[in-house]
Specification:
By secondary structure, the chain is of the alpha+beta class. It has five helices and 14 strands. Strands 2, 3, 6, 11, 12, 13 and 14 form a seven-stranded mixed β-sheet that branches. The protein has a five-stranded antiparallel β-sheet with strand order 4-5-1-9-10, with no helix packed on it. Strands 7-8 form a two-stranded antiparallel sheet. It is elongated and about 120 Å long.
């Protein structure tokens, strides 16, 4: 089954969001990039124009080998970018305490970008998921697998908490169906606190839609409930609170199926309707005429008897 959607996130850089999916059968999709696009926007929703100044790539020695800050391995001796350092720490299963202490991150303007929070992110794309109960989520921090566990690198959130206000422009399970209205389309959530977890619980019902030309579209419709809470990262790290900041959409597949078909009224049906309308008009006109006539007759009779002053 395919999940299609698009939406905007407030004050989040596109590189700081991960799209992940998992289900009860054990299937996992970590940091999905195929068929998923992320766009940088300014706070007005327009394409972001880079204003930060960073050291140009051509000014750097292409043969340099910069430090991984203790996370070097046999396969990774050098970390020439901020992302290289973060990946090296993830490979080790370590948390990166402060990006401000990493020269590569300061050079690339990552620290200033996180601190300024002057941009949004639009996420758009499709996810292929199995037809079993599961969830997918969009969360800050790069996701990865460590000791068979699904982990997000959230260390930077302790320095730079994120406003997770978001708008879901469209969320659909399956193919497009004419006239179908999805309950989460154009839905906006305004986070009143930082590092918020927003959970949506959707009940998905398979649908068979037959068009006038007998073409059949297999899709789904759904209902939704939602809940939100604020995540205390300190408590979460100690296991005192479950969850992490982000938008989580859980789905449960119904065993029932809805069938919808298009029908066009025949000409005889149209003709019958026209005749019914014409007949109704004549009937009402006759009733009104009879009421007016009888009232006039009664008035004339009273006038003849001298009962009208």
């Amino acid at each position: 089954s395919s999940v299609r959607g698009s939406g905007e996130w407030g004050e989040v850089h596109r590189e700081d969001l991960s799209v992940d999916a998992m289900d009860v059968s054990g299937g996992q999709q970590v940091d999905v990039v195929q068929d998923v696009q992320k766009f940088r926007l300014d706070l007005e929703g327009q394409p972001y124009v880079e204003t930060e100044t960073a050291v140009a790539a051509e000014e750097l020695d292409p043969n340099r080998c910069e430090s991984c800050y203790g996370a070097e391995t046999d396969n990774r001796k050098c970390c020439n970018t901020c992302e290289d350092v973060r990946n090296a720490y993830r490979d080790r299963g370590w948390g990166l305490e402060s990006l401000a202490a990493i020269d590569q991150c300061k050079r690339e303007g990552v620290v200033g970008r996180l601190n300024a929070s002057k941009e949004m992110c639009r996420v758009k794309g499709n996810l292929k998921v199995s037809k079993v109960t599961g969830n997918f989520h969009i969360s800050p921090g790069k996701s990865f697998q460590h000791n068979h566990a699904h982990v997000h690198d959230l260390k930077f959130l302790s320095e730079f908490p994120i406003n997770l206000t978001h708008t879901i422009n469209r969320l659909a399970y399956g193919e497009f169906v004419p006239t179908q209205v999805n309950p989460l389309d154009n839905h906006t959530f305004v986070a009143t606190e930082l590092n918020t977890m927003r959970q949506y619980y959707t009940q998905v019902v398979p649908m068979r839609y037959q068009k006038l030309n007998s073409e059949v579209v297999l899709s789904n419709q759904y209902s939704v409930t939602y809940h939100s809470k604020t995540i205390d990262l300190a408590k979460a790290s100690r296991g005192e609170q479950s969850g992490l900041p982000g938008m989580f959409i859980s789905y449960d597949i119904s065993p029932l199926m809805v069938e919808v078909s298009e029908h066009r009224r025949s000409f005889t049906h149209f003709l019958t309707g026209v005749c019914a309308i014409v007949g109704g008009v004549f009937t009402v006109a006759g009733i009104i005429d009879s009421m007016v006539y009888n009232s006039y007759r009664a008035f004339q009779k009273k006038l003849q008897l001298g009962k009208v002053n």
